[in-house]
Amino acid sequence: AVLDAIRRAHARGARLVGFCSGAFTLAEAGVLDGRRATAHWQWADAFRARFPAVRLEEDVLFVDDGDILTAAGSAAALDLGLHVVRRDHGAEVASAVSRRLVFAAHRDGGQRQFIERPVPEVPEESLAPVLAWAQERLDRPLTVADLAARAAVSPATLHRRFRAELGTTPLAWLTGERVTLARRLLERGEARLDVVARASGLGTAAHLRTLVRRETGLSPSAYRNRFGPGGT
Description:
This protein is mainly alpha-helical. The chain has helices at 2-11, 22-28, 44-50, 74-89, 91-101, 128-135, 144-151, 155-165, 170-187, 193-199, 205-216, 220-227, and strands spanning 16-19, 36-37, 55-56, 62-64, 68-71. Strand 4 (62-64) and strand 5 (68-71) form a beta hairpin.
């Protein structure tokens, strides 16, 4: 009965979301054949053996394949949930939701699920203070060297800590935060792209257009029309 309900929902165009082992249920219903999906890394081999027609991406947090989305585990489910909120309602609302959840929205779907590393005998200081410091200065010409200096470590050590704690690089994180800020400015109704680009640290309107389109599939103007004041 559950599988039939999933098939009917898919046939009528509903968006389907599978968290962790939920990908098995979607695959069993046949709606993932030929599609991209992810599952928890512990179950990747079993999933691949059982559903060879699914294009499993086992080393990511979540996969957005349009009308079907899958997340790798319970923490990744929160990442995917915020992604859905951001996609449907914009970055400003997603930021408010993350604050309500006391959940930092620092991870995107392409980051790695699992990093094999020993637990240090002395826990390293969290990156949170450095991230907060950078988020307050996104309009300035910040570099990886600046972040490393703030953290009082070498750039190589900073890269290692970003990989370990966030599953991404300092530059990728910084660019993502700037794009998020740009989206929030657009949502507030700012129409001057050069102003948005400068305020978010993206530099030029051309660079802003490229990154917003890559992230959202929309031009900055279309994004503002959809999520800005009076948007549809």
